Amino acid sequence: NSFCTLLMVSRNTALAAVAAGLAIVAMSRRSSGESSGKGGSSSRRSGKASVRVDGVFMKRLLALLRICVPGAFSREMGMLVSLMALLLLRTRLTITMAQIVGGNAKYLVERNARKFVAGVVDIGLWSLPSAVVNAGIKYLTSLLEGRVRSNLQRHLHDAYLQQSTVYKVSAGSQVEHADHRITKDVLAFAEEVSQIFPLIFKPSIDVIVFILQLSRNGGVMPPMLMIAYYLVAGTMMRAMMPNFAKLTAQTQQREASFRAIHSQVIQHAEEVAFYRGERTERKVADSGIASLVKHQLHVKQLKSYTDFVDAILIKYGATCVGYAVCSLGVFGLGDGASAAERTRVYIQSSQLYIPLAQAIGKLVLLHNRITALAAYTTRVAEVRELLDNLNTASRQNTSDSITVQPHSDAITLKNAKIVTPSGETLLND
Q: Which of 38, 159, 192, 248 can pair with 373 through a Cys bridge, CB separation 3.0 to 4.6 Å?
């Protein structure tokens, strides 16, 4: 019973960690979503749902996650628990390496050759488990991506490839390019969702553990100053960032449209050859690739602008703040501290402040990954919801009025409707 409870708690913790990080980003972007409310309503009226990080996105994402991680005793849950363990172990190894490096700096200043050489050997020995843990994290992440895609792909196949659902989807216009969404968008969603959990869990744990470790030298104030800087920088960045979720969704839409152009050329190759329509088809294909490249160039220009802002605020600005914060712990030592002890404290603190800064930076920049995940979630969830609605309507329209006469070739139709696969009624009763 205790083991079952542990697995249930682990599953809930994993989902809660993802949901908590996404909720923070959703709250920070709520104002921008409200300011574009009129545009969103007009998009819905035109049949194209807007892409935003909001409550609808959270609801859709959690529904897809329940498909990707089917239960507490599933293989995917075991991968998540193992990944959590490796991430915690990686944090512990970082602290150990920082302590060894700090001690080596002290021995170097003291000119203690024997202890310094022993410290170098320790670094070499501890690098082996560090390399194994890093490789294990990447391997488990790739395995989780494969399982997520497989589960979601099978679920969509079950809903898509039954009865006349394929015909209804192709004949209708509720969702464009369903084949592209079921294949390429599912792959992109699996890649994003398998990487988003380490991006939320690992930095969150690092921030808590490293702050507690650094508070032993200089108190809590120095790491709090660094966190305050990142919060200010993150607020400024979110105010200047474009809506990459919408841009990513538009990119996928243009990719699907361009792919559909070539699929139609192959499908109607005989008609194109008979009517000599090569020039027309070439114009259509050139127009499609021109639209796609123009949009991608626009997105890359916006990303180059955001990369510039990231470098100024997150990379170089944080480096200056980090140097200042590391010195506070050294200046806080008493007058009786030796030069070797001051060197140890500074080197050890810098070894911890570097991953702390990286962890905070990842949390601040998390909205970039969330917006991309929102775009893929919207596209996959839309086709899933359409398939579910079509299959539900198909089951409700199933009539029991068709009777096969026993021991006879006759089929009796009583109070039956003649309906096309797309749902159009041709004849009542």
A: 192
CA distance 19 to 303: 26
Tokens 């060894």 correspond to what residue? Answer: 100
Say if pTM beats, i.e. exceeds, 0.85: no
pLDDT digits (tens, 9 = 90+) for 62-111: 999 999 998 888 999 999 999 999 999 999 998 898 888 888 888 888 88
pLDDT above 70: percentage of residues in the chain? 81
Tell me the mean pLDDT in the region 206-224: 79
Q: For 231-248, b where at least 16 C-beta lie within 10 A, e where not — what string?
A: eebbeebeeebebbbbbb
Question: Considering only CA atoms, which of 423, 420, 418, 415 is closest in space to residue 396?
Answer: 423
pLDDT band at 147 (very low <50, low <70, confident <90, very high): very high
Q: Give 199's Cβ-side CA count (13 Å radius).
A: 20
The span from the CA of 229 to the CA of 210, in Å, is 17
Radius of gyration of the chain (CA): 29
SS3 219: coil
**Contacts (Cβ under 8 Å, ≥6 apart) of 305:** none
| Cα distances (Å, whole numbers) of residue 284 to 271, 297, 346 | 16, 20, 64
